[in-house]
Amino acid sequence: MKKNYFIILLTFVIFAGCNHDKKQALETLDRARTYYNNEAYDAAKLCLDSLKEGYPQEVGVLKEGLQLMREVEVKEKERNIRYCDSMVIVKTAQADSMKKLFVFEKDPKYDDIGKYLDKQQVLERNLKRSYIRSGVNENGAMYIASVYYGKGRIKHRQLRVTAPDKTFTETAEIPENGGTNYAFQDLGMTTEVVTYQNGKDNDVILFIYNHRNERLKADFLGQTPYSLTISEGDQKSLAKTYDLSVILNDIGMLKEEKEKSLARITYLKSKLGTE
């Protein structure tokens, strides 16, 4: 008799404990819904995380919590899309204003992507001189080029830029390849153009930008030593190009983030109501 009484009492205690846990879990879920309805999505997610950690045995409540978590994420992604759309409008207006300082070049026969050159650095204005040229393509990828003009070949493959305090940085070496490193002769004079793109500048672009108000020395490294002082105009052109590059990259990242959010929403909505 005493044994049966003990079993009954233990069952009652366990049952009461289970009911208490379920009640607490449902209250936590209700708080999460309230936060969700008030657009307090971070607070809603915290409640749902505590639900999962505190009541792992309440399977039914957890399923409801999972569905609510998906709804929360959908709303967050929709909010993210609205932000991206609004910022693209702002950034596009900034880019359009800056583009007035540039010339757009694109040869349909050879170029899939066009590029922007500062008006002061178009080829017609820079014949017969050695200088540092910069540009940026439509997607925001910036490049820099060392252009040599002289009587003989120096066969340079690399660029070093040095600041007045003797700090310096160097590009990667670009072998002569007829594309990003090429040379030609005209009327007995030689032109060499070495382009550093896709990260080959090794932050020389950023170095020049950060020291744009200082007198910078450029060494063209190759078979024959050659150096020049980067002109104030070329430094200003690079700075303008860098600023445009940043804005174009921002636009690209915002559009990419929007596409990711749209894809995530599609996935989440396919899961809602399925479990």
Description:
- Helix content is 50%, strand content 21%.
- It has 275 residues and is an alpha+beta fold.
- The protein has a six-stranded antiparallel sheet. Strands 6-5-9-10 form a four-stranded antiparallel sheet, with helices on one face.
How would you summarize what this structure contains?
By secondary structure, this protein is of the alpha+beta class. The protein is about 50% helix and about 20% strand. Helix 1 runs antiparallel to helix 2 (about 40-55), helix 1 runs parallel beside helix 3 and helix 4 crosses helix 5.
**Widest sheet, order of strands:** 1-2-3-4-8-7
**What fraction, in percent, of the residue positions are helical?**
40-55%
Distance between the termini: 46 Å
Instruction: Give average pLDDT, whole number.
Output: 91
Estimate the strand proportion.
15-25%
Shape verdict: elongated
Rounded to the nearest angstrom, the radius of gyration is: 31 Å
Total helices: the number is: 5
Biggest sheet overview = 6 strands, antiparallel
Report the count of strand segments.
10
Order of helices and strands: HHHEEEEEEEEHEEH
Q: What brief labels describe this structure?
A:
5 helices, about 280 residues, alpha+beta, single chain
What topology does this entry show?
Layout: H1 2-37, H2 41-54, H3 59-99, E1 102-105, E2 115-118, E3 131-137, E4 142-150, E5 156-162, E6 168-170, E7 181-186, E8 189-196, H4 204-210, E9 217-222, E10 226-229, H5 232-271
Antiparallel strand pairs: 1-2, 2-3, 3-4, 4-8, 5-6, 5-9, 7-8, 9-10
